[in-house]
TrEMBL record:
It holds the Pfam family PASTA. Residues 59-131 form the PASTA domain. This is PASTA domain-containing protein. Residues 1-19 form the signal peptide. It comes from Nonomuraea fuscirosea. InterPro entries: PASTA_dom. Residues 29-62 are annotated as: Disordered. Keywords: Signal. The lineage of its organism: Bacteria, Bacillati, Actinomycetota, Actinomycetes, Streptosporangiales.
Amino acid sequence: MLKRLAPLVLMTTCLTACGSRTLPAAPVETVTATVQPSPRTDDVETDTPNQEDTASDDVAAKKKLPDVVGMNLQEGQDTLQAAGFYVLNDKDATGQNRLQVFDRNWVVTKQSPAAGRRVSTDTLITLYAKKIGE
């Protein structure tokens, strides 16, 4: 078998040594970018917030909590969010701890805190719901 491979190896070596025709390399495109220096921080004036601005940012507004009992769960969530309440939780009102995957198939039976109260918009609102028809 070695005798059969020897001519093939010799021919490959000769072709490689004799040189092979190579294609010229593709031209290289040069890109130049200009970097602008950033402004020095001691040259920039900054507004310092006063106490009135920071106090209003830290405290969430108090609003009247809408009544969503009797609505389907999705509509109840949408109503609360439209009123500015975004910290929402929902629970299975039957105590079976089921997940409300399709909110439109569930009806709100209770909400906590109760509707009509003025509460902060960052208050946790829990909606208790059961499947429609239960």
